[in-house]
Write a structure and sequence with these properties.
Length: 96
């Protein structure tokens, strides 16, 4: 197993561990599942197991595939034009 695969496996294990740990009273199952996915995603970014964009899309995909969130809710942030405007301005700044 190479270094990259080991990093991904560690992040996946962290997410699975949190996912199957009993959640505290007062927290919903969906909130606990989101914590597991979010923790694994942050781990991927910190360990540089995947590039930030790929890690983020992996986390979003997991939320939809596990039915923790619906597609519309998970990707609702991408419907707002303001982040896209900022991204385009940033990319133009990098190119020019």
């Amino acid at each position: 197993m190479n270094k990259q695969s080991l990093k991904i496996a560690i992040c996946f294990a962290i997410g699975v561990l949190i996912w199957f740990t009993p959640y505290p009273e007062g927290i919903t199952q969906n909130a606990w599942q989101l914590l597991a996915i979010f923790s694994a995603t942050i781990c991927m970014i910190l360990l540089q197991a995947l590039p930030m964009g790929a890690a983020t899309l992996t986390g979003l995909t997991c939320t939809v595939l596990t039915k923790t969130m619906s597609f519309d809710v998970a990707f609702s942030g991408y419907k707002n034009p303001v982040p896209w405007l900022i991204l385009i301005a940033f990319l133009l700044h990098m190119v020019l």
